[in-house]
Amino acid sequence: MTRPVRWRWLLVIWLLLAGRVWAHVDFSTDVLPIFAEHCLKCHGPDAAARQAEMRLDRGQTDHPLLPDPEELLRRINSTENDVRMPPPGAGARLSADDIATLGSWVADGANWNEHWSRRPIRRPSLPNHPSLRHPVDRFIFEASNKHNLTMSGEASRGDLVRRVSYSLTGLPPTKIEIDRFLEDQRSDAYSRMVQRYLSSSRYGEHMATFWLDLARYADTNGYHVDNHRVMWRWRDWVVESWNRNQPFDEFTVHQLAGDLLPNADDDTRLATGFHRNTMTMFENGALAEEFLPEYVADRVNTTSAVWLGQTFKCARCHDHKFDPISQRDYYRLFAYFNNIDELGLSGQYEPPKPIMDAPTRLQRATLVELDSAIALQRNRQDERRQWAANSVEEWEADIADLACPAPPKDSAIYVAFDETHGADLGFPPNKIGSILGDVLRLPQGRSGGALLLTDSSRVELNATPLVPTDKSWTLAVWLYITTNDTMVLFRHRATDESKEDRLGAGLEIQLVERKPLLQFTSKGRTPWIAKSVSALSGNAWHHLALSYDAKVTRVSMRIDHDPVVVNQPEKPPANYQSVDAIVALSDKEKPLRGMLDELRFFHRVLTVEEINLLMGADLLAEVLAIDRDERNDRQRALLVDHYLRRIDRPYRAASKTVAVLDERRSELVRRIPTSLIMRERAQRRPTFILHRGDYRQPGEEVLPGTPEYLPSNGNFQQSRLGLARWIVSPENPLTARVFVNYIWRLHFGRGLVATPEDFGVRGEPPTHRLLLDWLASEFIESGWNVKRLHLLILTSSTFRQTSRVALEHRSLDPENLWYCRGPRYRLSAEQIRDTALAVSGLLDHRILGPSVYPYQPPGLWIELSYNPNSFTAQVFRQSHGADLYRRSLYTFWKRSSPPPNMAVFGAPTRETCLLQRARTNTPLQALVLMNDPTFVEAARLLATGLLARQTTDAERLKILWMKTMSRQPTREEIAVTLRSLQKLKTHYEDHADRADQLLTVGEYRSVSAQSVAEVAAWTCLCSVVLQQDEVLTQH
Amino acid sequence: MHANRHPSYAALQWEQSLTRRQLLGRSATGLGVMALGSLLGSKSADASAQPGWGKAKRVIYLVQAGAPSQMDLFDYKPALRQQSGMELPKSVRMGQRLTSMTADQEKKPLTPSHFKFAQHGNSGRWVSELLPHTANVVDELCFVYSLHTHAINHDPGITFLQTGNEKPGHPSLGAWLSYGLGSENQQLPAYATFISGGKPGDQPLFDRLWGAGFLPTQHQGVRFRRGCEPILYLNNPSGIGRDTRRIMLDLSSELHRFQDESFADPEISARVSQFELAYQMQMAAPELTDLSDEPGHVLRQYGPHVDQPGTYAYNCLMARRLAERGVRFVQLFHRGWDHHTDLPTRIAENCEQTDQPSAALVRDLRQRGLLEDTLVVWAGEFGRTSYCQGKLTANNYGRDHHPRCFTIWMAGGGIRRGIGYGATDDWSYNISRDPVHVHDLNATILHALGINHTQLTYRYQGRDHRLTDVHGEVVQPLFA
């Protein structure tokens, strides 16, 4: 038993050398970071890289892989190359401080405990400082006291209302808001003010901005061509969720698995767009099997980063080096997201599937309104029909003289199939087409000859009727088919392979199991298909009339003269470019078997009478000739139909109304935005552990499961829904800690954990661990009530301190780690732009809606673009009017070229999940503030607004300061500013042309009774004020 | 205006009182100078003893976006001529993956270059007739015939070349340099990028290619643009002259002084400096683009397009002018090298646009003595297949993407002159000698700049990230 004695001796020496007092050392915050820095690469969680079967990161004292503490100290302290740790070449020796810390820890008994972020969240008791009422203050006070710091006094009321306004809405307070607070003498005036901002709809927009970075939301597909994707309805869902204070656990579950909820609805499905914000690829030549796993990996990385405070990225290729995340854990998490019904390559011409229609609330309401109005009219029609059927004698005479003898003559194509000249249809020079393939015969048809086609013959017509999807048309033909095979009747579609981008754009009419079918096709898009439910009977002549009504994008078909039910997509077909294609009858692969006669094509929709006439019969006259009592049901219905549609006033009025309503409805449906969503595949896609993350090297198959190092999810289903519920279960130690840290950062500019992206052993430990835990448990107990969490933090004295830096703080706590003064940090890119718009009165106050295109320098997109003719979002088309002045979160976000005036202020590309933006301070930012038309225009509007007031310049400055800084200017500031103003006025009086030019910047026209020189000078002045650090800073 | 080493100078001064550990934890503030300090730590002593260490002060990187065909420009393969039209042997392809454009193409006929090759200079490097000007400077160049990468598509390929990672989110080489070395000239950006070419169908580019990834955004490349405003938002609005701007900035400084007194936050004086820098940049940028001081014989070297902003020639001249002004990293992107079809005519067009300016740049730098400490790199994101994409005819062919070997050249900055390094097989399909991975290239570029690539790290999400990930070997034989 001599060894322990010896090492205790050594320990005392180390401690003396290090000059350290014997202090309590916590394994997870003090020791583990040292191990992480120096040891875990070889003695950590990565089993493959582990040396000497030793592992230093696990908390369980009985862990078999623990080293002997004495041996550990001996090794790190040794100077012998074959003894020392880390070994030469593997890393530098530990510092004396680190060695001393380890020494203290060993002397304390070498207690191992779980890393702080993975311990269960237990509500700590409040520090005992009875003079402090607010729990947050008690924790803060206790820590600052330890560091010999004193807390600062309360900020001015003007500063407070400004601070809260920015913290909760991202906007400066209005004059009314300031006055309301300043005039409120009640003792709870402050918390009332906070409540007011919490109930503002601007709150949801501000919170959404923070969430969009995490969610990597953007309006383009991201990879390669980076074309447009419609996703703003998901963004609006986020804004509204924050505004209605949806509990964070529910907010989470809806976004991760809203489609799988037992009571899933359109709203919860829309929410799942969170994980469809992944970028998608469709570059020519790319491999689907390579990119599909990328989308899933992005979801794993994002989920772990956003909710678990740690990326699992490293574990894609191997066990994590520092945190106990195994590669197996990674792929088990991967398996939850590997079953989305999506494609590896998608998004080229239509949104990457799966998608849903996501009508806005207004659209939904209008649709209901229209549908009931249409139903009302249809009811009236039904009533009239009933009446007409029962009172034939009253009107039969009226229809007797309805004559319509001649069939319509305005067809664009008419082939009678009565004559042929060799392979030509019709005699040259009036040749209307050519017969290809087998010799054809013209047997007796419905009218004169008919065309008999075999499986090796087809016809190409010389006609080239251009039929884009916004033009109506009708095809009418007699058909006699002999088989059930799929056959092409009529095709007008490009097949020229050299015209790569246009291949296959056009329309095609087929018979599938004798059912007529129309499809619009366009390369890369899913065909748009309208299909009859009824079939033609085989080996008999039938007349088929097929119309496409572009106004309501509806296909109607009549077989003989009977209308048939047609199934077609609710959405209109996508437009395709007209092509110089030929019209073909039949097809090599899908030949038409049977006979054709009397084929006509019209550039309009035909009436039923006209179709009847084309059938070669005036059915009306035929029926009328039959004795009233001897007519069958069909014949009676035919007469009623004629009467109603051609004579009966109430019926005709209703028809007219229905037509108008139908058109409006179809216009509305056309405008319904879609949104990308998650939907499970019917058949589970298996997940394999991929060797080194390579999709070509699948290993063992794994099932979905939560990480082993975190409390098990035994009670949850092995589905995405189970995962989502596990994430927000109170037993999960991370989610609540991670989220309250986001909110703390939102208000103080820095998290209690300074590395929100890393709650692992290499992240910064929390400055106030107990406060973090207290807030987290409070948050969970409140039912994940986010607004309540804001209120809790914002009502603390800690938040209400002045931001002015006291001299002692400057040296003792330059970073404000101990919160002994109020927050002070630069506003975000969005806030800076929104501030300029708000104070100048330009801000457009509409909430939600499609993304907009405010000013940006010309040419930025097209210089990078692939092919502006073939793809969306390749050329920037600026908005005009109110859309120029919407809040910045509504700005169209192109991932390969994000809004430049926001990017310089740290706005990300949104290609991947980002947890905190850098707050830089650069000359390029200065250039934006000086020269971007956004800011120059705002300055001009601010100027004209001030000049419209009948008052002195000094008074105007007071208004300006109040608007932009929520305070009065000092006497010195007024003096200095007025002096410069005078210089500027003199300058512009001497250079009226320059003044004129300056006032043309920006599209908003403003008028001022003042001289242009006056306005120009004030514009410059306001521009300077908008550049002030105080304006650009939360404080 | 005080001498400002770094955009966040004032903040940095204040940070001197912080411990290094705290600093490393602060991912939000720029660390250029600090990072440099750590790079010159103990380990770099070993590396500095090796040839080439720190010979380069700056880099001009000529990115030939779209991937030029190596065997039509530099990698001379006479054996392909005998096998023209024959099938690419299975023993050569070895089942490697191909893009979906040619994976299912029934025949993969071997396709020799239509262009004549000859040996040039004292070094006798083979160059195709497409590049007569480059052929004239081969004795300055170091060809690497054995570059290789993983990606088979442009997006991941060029993202990898630029950031050392195929997927978005990582800093570009230039951003790493800005972070690691800071800037020599505060009046111009530390990292400048230029774009030329770009017809419909040319491969697209993305901001991430010069982005800062997870580094603070100030390190991202600044896009220099054609036209009267070379840097975004550089010009004063119409009606505000330089005199007016001065009045405005003076007022701004005075007002900021009051705020400084009130808040005592060093960010305030830092903000004032940024405005002053912006004001200087407004002067410096027009001086940069004003070519009136360039003698005619210099301009003529760069070819007929040199005076047209937005051309590759113009951008090459800009690169030299920026190098002279101490800008650390200039990167040119020339679009249009993606020749799946009609390669013979299209590659000729691209060479016509780029050959003379590239050669002129090297010569011009040499004449000014700048080539000693300026590293020039010419590279695309990958190579092209030696078999034909589509139908091989007597006069026409195309080539698909090929990551397994491609040719680049380097010059200056301590790189050996007139050599060739590495070799490919008779089909220019596989590397037969001395492979150089893109990570190795990046490690080599950093080495030339005096940076040990394993030491230039940034902690993000708990990991110390590197440009070269966990790979990369400096290619020592490339250095003189």
Number of domains of chain B: 2
**Percent in helix of chain B:** 25-40%
Biggest beta-sheet profile of chain A: 10 strands, antiparallel
CATH architecture of the domain at 413-615 in chain A: Sandwich
pLDDT averaged over residues of chain B: 90
- Please name the fourth-level CATH homologous superfamily of the largest domain in chain B: Alkaline Phosphatase, subunit A
Q: Rounded to an integer, what's the Rg of chain B over CA atoms?
A: 24 Å
Beta-strand proportion of chain B: 15-25%
Second CATH tier, the architecture of the largest domain in chain B: 3-Layer(aba) Sandwich
Q: What level of helicity do the residues of chain A show?
A: 25-40%
CATH class value of the domain at 413-615 in chain A: Mainly Beta
Quote the CATH topology of the domain at 413-615 in chain A.
Jelly Rolls
Most extensive chain interface and residues per partner? A-B, 113 and 95 residues
Distance between the termini of chain A: 62 Å
Q: What's the total number of strands of chain A? A: 23
SS-based class of chain A: alpha+beta
Report the uncertain regions of chain A. Answer: 1-5, 15-22, 497-503
Q: Average pLDDT of chain A, to the nearest integer?
A: 89
Would you give an account of this structure?
The complex is a heterodimer of chains A (1035) and B (480). Chain A is 40% helix and 10% strand. A ten-stranded antiparallel β-sheet of chain A has the order 3-4-5-7-17-9-10-11-12-16, with no helix packed on it. In chain A, strands 2, 6, 8, 13, 14, 15 and 18 form a seven-stranded antiparallel β-sheet that branches. Chain A has 1035 residues and is α+β, with helices and mostly antiparallel strands. Chain B has two domains: 356 residues, Alkaline Phosphatase, subunit A, CATH 3.40.720; 74 residues, no CATH class. Helix content of chain B is 34%, strand content 15%. In chain B, strands 1, 4, 5, 6, 7, 8, 11, 12 and 15 form a nine-stranded mixed β-sheet that branches. A two-stranded antiparallel ribbon of chain B has the order 2-3. In chain B, strands 9-10 form a two-stranded antiparallel sheet. Classes of the chains: A alpha+beta (1035), B alpha/beta (480). At the A-B interface, helix 27, helix 29, helix 30, helix 33 and helix 34 of A face helix 1, helix 11 and helix 12 of B.
